[in-house]
Amino acid sequence: MTLMASIPLPAGGQSARTFSMRADNDAFDFWMAPWNRPDEEYTSGVHLAYDGGEVPWWARRIASGLQFCTALSISCRTSHVEIGQDIYTPLVPQTGGAATIERPNAGWLYASQSAQWLTTDRSDAFSITLGVTGPPSLARFTQHLAHNVAPAFNRPTDWSRQVAFEPGVIARFEHAARFGSPADAPLGIDIVPRAGVSLGNVLTAADAGARVRFGWRMSHPWLPPARDIGFDVLFGASARAVARDLFLDGNTLQDGPRVGHEALVESGEVGFELHVRGLALGYRAVADSRAYRGGPRWHPWGSMTGSVTVWK
After folding, report:
1. H or E stretch at 195
2. What pLDDT is recorded for position 310?
3. How far apart are CA 111 and CA 229, in angstroms?
4. Considering only 67-81, 120-134, 284-298, which range has the smallest mean pLDDT?
5. Residue 20: per-residue pLDDT
6. Which residues pair with 125 in a beta bridge?
7. Is 136 helix (H, G, I), strand (E, B) or coil?
């Protein structure tokens, strides 16, 4: 309660600053017994983000017609900065002949900067992501560190076969829209479709999907929060058409382990979010369809999020 009381309610002209963390892991499949949860495919992701402030210098000319986002904004511009690490592992330990048909271990350590153009009913964002794969991604170190916490529930890992070092870049554009109840309705429901395209040596793909949300004093999907207490429940589905996935197709300019990718990957999700003033906590259960020939038909994983918003 002390932390909640220390966060002031926003004044109309104040701009929002949001700090958030998202942790993805198949160990968060809480509907399964701990010893039955998967430890494979997209097995871990940790993402730290900051939303607020001026758009990046490279986007200011495009966004010159919009003001900074405040607590009462209905049309504004802002930035998103994120650092993160993603880890991918094979379906079985890499021993014997089975390893030749399983995906290689892979890590992705990155930093991303986005420019966002926001209104009450649409969001447009362009982002540039730079990162590294291979040993510099620290994926092996991170997984071994995590597995040492609860060794009884974790299978052994072997990182002798992994995607090698490669600098990576991804340019992405995403558009989203909102249809539904007025943003200030006590009880609300909305539909948020989105579509995006990613280009780069790490990922080249196009994707589209939609979320349905309903709840009490729901947070807006992208504008700064301005409610005291509320919650929302969400359901979503999406599909991604893949042209290149470095974590499956291997390094760009050198030989190495690779298994190829499926042209279409589908995902489904269900989740919720609770928010009190500037604090928010959420959880999503996600299932992804087969990403490569020989991979599991579906891979479930969980995502836990937390954020705090302050106004200045």
Report:
1. strand 187-200
2. 87
3. 32
4. 67-81
5. 96
6. 116, 174
7. helix
Using a 10 angstrom Cβ sphere, with 0-12 exposed, 13-18 middle and 19 or more buried, the burial of residue 10 is buried
Residue 94's pLDDT is 45
Q: What is the pLDDT of residue 13?
A: 58
Classify burial at 135, counting beta carbons within 10 Å of its beta carbon; exposed 0-12, middle 13-18, buried 19 or more: middle
User: Can you tell me the distance from the alpha carbon of 308 to that of 178, in angstroms, rounded to the nearest whole number?
Assistant: 23
**Helix ranges, the chain (H):** 2-5, 139-147, 246-249
Bridge partners of 82?
49, 112
Nearest-CA neighbor of 77 among 125, 129, 19, 17? Answer: 125
Domains of the chain with bracketed CATH: 2-6+16-301 (2.40.128.140)
| CA-based nearest residue to 39, from 305, 256, 302, 306 | 302
- Residue 122 CA neighbour count, 13 Å, CB half: 5
Rg of the chain, C-alpha, whole Å = 20
Element (H, E) at 161: none
